[in-house]
Design brief:
The complex is a heterodimer of chains A (355) and B (236). Chain A has 355 residues and is mainly α. Chain A contains 13 helices and no strands. In chain A, 73% of the residues lie in helices and 0% in strands. Classes of the chains: A mainly alpha (355), B alpha/beta (236).
Chain lengths: 355, 236
């Protein structure tokens, strides 16, 4: 078939050469934004252990481990518009698996983290099954019920701490700590190690967003009819997103377990999943920076208040106001506002330096 | 060629289509009728979003109803919606590529194919612009580009000219007329713009209350007194 030429009503005539130049520019911009992401994390990984004292080093490790899980929340909500309120429970699943494997088999830490991610991905897929039928509030409620179920189970079962049996619980003896990776035994080194995992997970998500999966998720978010009309296998891509988000949560849980050495079942209430979701929205679900901000809000803000001898629970008031602000006026979250500010500064700088 | 036989679609107690029979064998066919006539329902049945109660549909000899919606897309069926479905945070290029992702194509030729289609609909200058920044005309043309990419066989356009200015409608008309030469696909066009139907479609099916009112050469159909009474609102 011979292509025909149609005169464009637009001012600039169509040109494949111009198109190629524009596409090359977009590719460069995307590569640059990926490098900015990795550079930011490199700076964080270098500066935080150097600047922070022992207390804050541990706090930042926990915060960035939670950022890994928040990245999964952002993936589901930002890419697909799905509200999953069981991501903190999946973080607990990951922590349980990592502790169990580490105490039970002594496998290298990295394998424990990967196993935690994979098991949480599987559980995340199962948790996502209702998403094939439910949306919005109903999906949120069902996933919240799952988080409630996990809370009940983990309160009874507890996290493994080096004991015998399938559950690996110590009864009446000394609880063992999970062994950290050989390259990151100190708190400072472990913080850098967490940053490396965070960089890997964020890069994995960015890779998805920029390729076929991301485009398919965008079509599903636009509307299921539009996705079906484009030939998207909605079941496959939604399940894939839930699995990836579960993987993020599992990795976050394993890193959290490695940082603290033990996990407490009481810290994995269903309300934590709600808080993780809310702060992911406040941080911003459309950009990788949002996940980092969400993790810091979850752990660093209460710690900061404690540092100033203010009750950490006051953070809830601050979070509530921030969520209201994000929902009403800043739907791209704090990350969106930071990026917007940076763009404005850059534009002014460019305008100022122009002849 | 689309062969529709004894097609009935029912929503609860309402019959949207009743025992419809039609053979659409022209390169560009029109589908017109008053609001609620069953036009979009027919397109939804063709694309697999609605299951008929009875009937058969064959496209180029293939039993369409035996295929799932995604299989129909792979088969070569494309559709646009009354409300355009451009993804706002993807640029024009990615919007079209998202369509190509799910149809059979040569990986090495994907870039050239998307570029060819975007150039055809005149969107090359805005190929890297986000969907959110496009005007209505550009969004409509993205929908045309999405339909054209990846060797389509049958294109279903549901009111692609809605809201366009006269000049933009002329451009759309020329694009639709060129499709047969561009990719060889058959076009089924729903629109309320009779001038657009007249200018592009050589065969037209008219529906009224879910039933076939007329089918034949467009000019002849538009002059049919029954069609004029039901659709154009003209006194005899």
């Amino acid at each position: 078939m011979t292509p025909i030429s149609i005169a464009s009503p637009m001012a600039i005539p169509p040109s494949i050469d111009a198109l190629q130049i524009a596409l090359d520019r977009v590719r460069r911009e995307r590569l640059r934004s990926l490098l900015v992401m990795l550079g930011t994390l490199l700076v964080l990984g270098t500066m935080l252990p150097w600047l922070a004292n022992a207390y804050w080093t541990k706090t930042f490790s926990s915060a960035l481990a939670l950022s890994v899980a928040a990245a999964g929340v952002g993936l589901l909500y930002g890419q697909l518009g799905l509200v999953s309120l069981c991501q903190f429970a999946l973080l607990g699943v990951g922590g349980w698996v990592a502790l169990r494997i580490s105490h039970g088999s002594g496998l290298p830490f990295e394998l424990c983290v990967l196993a935690a991610g994979l098991v949480s991905a599987l559980v995340g897929m199962l948790a996502g099954l209702p998403a094939l039928r439910l949306k919005g509030l109903y999906l949120a409620l069902v996933t919240l019920m799952l988080a409630g179920g996990f809370q009940v189970v983990i309160t009874v079962v507890g996290f493994p701490d080096g004991g015998p049996g399938w559950l690996g619980r110590v009864e009446g003896g000394e609880r063992l700590l999970m062994a950290r990776p050989a390259v990151a035994t100190s708190d400072s080194a472990y913080l850098r190690y967490v940053v490396l995992w965070l960089a890997a997970v964020l890069a994995l998500i960015e890779l998805h967003r920029r390729t076929r999966a991301g485009r398919s998720w965008a079509l599903i978010r636009r509307g299921e009819a539009a996705a079906l009309g484009a030939g998207v296998n909605v079941l496959l891509y939604q399940t894939w997103a839930f699995a990836l988000a579960g993987f993020c949560a599992g990795v976050g849980g394993a890193l959290l377990a490695g940082g603290v050495g033990q996990l407490d079942g009481r810290a994995f209430g269903a309300s934590e999943s709600v808080m993780l979701f809310a702060l992911s929205v406040v941080g911003g679900v459309y950009h990788w920076l949002g996940a980092i901000i969400a993790g810091l809000l979850l752990r660093a803000v209460p710690a900061l208040l404690t540092d100033f001898n203010v009750n950490g629970f006051l953070a809830m008031v601050f979070f509530g106001a921030a969520l209201l602000h994000a929902l009403i006026t800043a739907q791209e979250g704090v990350a969106g506002q930071v990026l917007s500010l940076l763009h404005r500064v850059r534009a002014r700088w460019t305008a100022g330096s122009a002849p | 060629m689309i062969v529709i036989s004894n097609l009935t679609v029912q929503f609860g107690g309402v019959k949207a289509l009743t025992q419809l029979d039609a053979v659409l064998d022209h390169p560009v066919c029109g589908l017109i009728g008053p609001n609620g006539a069953g036009k979009t329902t027919l397109v939804n049945v063709l694309s697999g979003l609605v299951q008929p109660r009875t009937g058969h549909i064959a496209v180029d000899g293939t039993d369409l109803l035996a295929l799932t919606p995604t299989q129909r897309v792979r088969f070569g069926l494309r559709r646009s919606f009354q409300t355009e479905q451009v993804v706002e945070d993807l640029d024009v290029w990615s919007n079209v590529l998202a369509m190509l992702d799910h149809v059979p194509h040569e990986r090495a030729g994907a870039k050239a194919e998307v570029g060819r289609v975007i150039d055809y609909v005149g969107l090359a200058p805005v190929a890297t612009v986000l969907g959110a920044r496009l005007n209505l005309f550009q969004r409509r043309m993205v929908e045309v580009a999405k339909a054209l990419v990846g060797a389509p066989r049958l294109l279903l356009f549901d009111e692609p000219g809605a809201g366009l200015t006269e000049q933009e409608a002329v451009f759309l008309r020329r694009a639709l007329l060129g499709i047969q030469d561009f990719c060889g696909a058959q076009v089924l066009l729903i629109d309320h713009d009779v001038d657009l139907i007249k200018a592009t479609c050589t065969q037209t099916l008219v529906l009224d209350f879910g039933q076939r009112l007329a089918l034949g050469p467009t000019q002849q159909v538009l002059e049919d007194p029954a069609v004029r009474r039901a659709y154009l609102g003209t006194e005899e």
